[in-house]
Specification:
The protein is built from 1 helix and 28 strands. It is mainly β. Strands 1-2-3-4 form a 4-stranded antiparallel β-sheet, with no helix packed on it. A hairpin with a 4-residue loop joins strand 22 and strand 23.
């Protein structure tokens, strides 16, 4: 789900010049840093060499290694491509190659892979149709969205709740332009809603609004075109989960809106009623990255620490603080994390040394630690 990594890859051309000096193509250092993402029951890691490794539930091909077998240890995504961005959703994953072309793999029930098909699955990267060049791609549950090099948003897949932003509720099996003249720097696809950051840092959301997760000041209904959220804050990034959305402002503060039960808004309270406008996450911390999972949120501070809040089933907050946390709690272990990936019932973090750690539920291997079969509240290192 999440995921606000890609715009820094505008520096890619300079990085590539360091990676191709021997005339044999990219070698080890391709990207300035890796990227970690988590889907509902699988995880993926984009290494600095441009290769993607995935692990966890793979019965629908979402690991991308050419088969449909779940993996408790990382397996390399097939096809020999080099990528600059990756994202993982409920049952599919997508990535961008060096040319900004989108590839997806996994379940294709509603057209979420963007290949023109609406049945079956793909067990390795498959080109998204339409011939578009993207800056960023975001994977939700049944839909996918991206921002092109001209900052135009496109979505494809399930459209029942207006989450494609096309002005209707039809499914789309190939990318279709979002019905807006706004230019976006980033989009995030969640369960049944989508949000993006437009010009001037204004966040726009569209899709289902049952719990106020569109942030537009009302609860219920849906919006099938981008609608500005309430308030005057300017945002750098936004992330959408199941029924909650959160973002980081230009002041590096975190705000959340939507379903507030089990502390999911990080407001310091167990909000039983939905909050349809941005609510400040109480911490006093300054953040650089944030990602919303199914029922919890994790964010990396500017000092390379990851804090999580929300439902703590199976220890996915990274600390034994009880059934839930209504304000940010530091992930245990003392690691310097620069990113986090929040999934269904697990979380992963990327350290400043490009090492991956995961914690939470491990029933299908989503932690990537074969020796650990039971849930864990403590980060465990993934070995590649």
């Amino acid at each position: 789900m999440v995921r606000n990594f890609f715009r820094s890859i505008a520096l890619l051309a300079g990085v590539l010049s360091l990676a191709c000096g021997d005339g044999t193509g990219p070698s080890v250092q391709l990207l300035p840093q890796g990227q970690i993402v988590a889907g509902n029951n699988h995880s993926c890691f984009l290494n600095v060499d441009g290769r993607i490794w995935c692990w966890g539930w793979g019965r629908l091909g979402q690991l991308g290694n050419g088969d449909t077998v779940s993996a408790r240890s990382p397996v390399m995504v097939a096809g020999g491509l080099r990528f600059v961005q990756v994202d993982a959703g409920a049952n599919h994953s997508c990535g961008l190659d060096l040319d900004g072309k989108a590839f997806c793999w996994g379940a294709e029930v509603f057209g979420e892979l963007g290949t023109g098909n609406t049945i079956g699955f793909a067990s390795q990267p498959t080109p998204v149709g339409g011939g578009l060049t993207f800056l960023q791609v975001s994977v939700g549950d049944g839909h996918t969205c991206g921002v092109t090099v001209s900052n135009e948003p496109y979505c494809w897949g399930l459209g029942l709740s207006g989450q494609l932003g096309t002005g209707g509720t039809a499914d789309e099996a190939t990318p279709r332009a979002v019905a807006t003249s706004v230019r976006f720097s980033q989009v995030s696809a969640g369960l049944v809603a989508t949000c993006g950051v437009g010009g001037g840092g204004q966040v726009y959301c569209w899709g289902d609004n049952t719990f106020g997760q569109l942030g537009i000041g009302t609860i219920g209904g849906f919006a099938d075109v981008p609608t500005p959220i309430a308030g005057t804050s300017q945002f750098l990034s936004v992330s959408v989960g199941s029924f909650v959305a959160c973002g980081i402002t230009v002041e590096r503060d975190a705000y959340c809106w939507g379903q507030g039960s089990f502390g999911r808004l990080g407001s310091g309270q167990q909000e039983e009623e939905p909050t349809p406008t941005p609510s400040l996450v109480v911490s006093g911390l300054k953040y650089q990255r944030l990602v919303v999972g199914a029922q919890h949120t994790c964010a990396a501070t500017i000092n390379d620490q990851v804090f999580c809040w929300g439902l703590n089933t199976y220890g996915k907050l990274g600390d034994d603080i009880g059934p839930s946390g209504d304000s940010p709690s530091l992930v245990s272990g003392g690691h310097a994390f620069i990113q986090a990936g929040a999934g269904g019932n697990h979380t992963c973090g990327l350290s400043s040394f490009n090492e991956v750690f995961c914690w939470g539920l491990n029933i299908v291997g989503q932690l990537g630690v074969p020796s650990q079969s039971r849930p864990t509240f403590t980060p465990r290192r993934v070995i590649f």
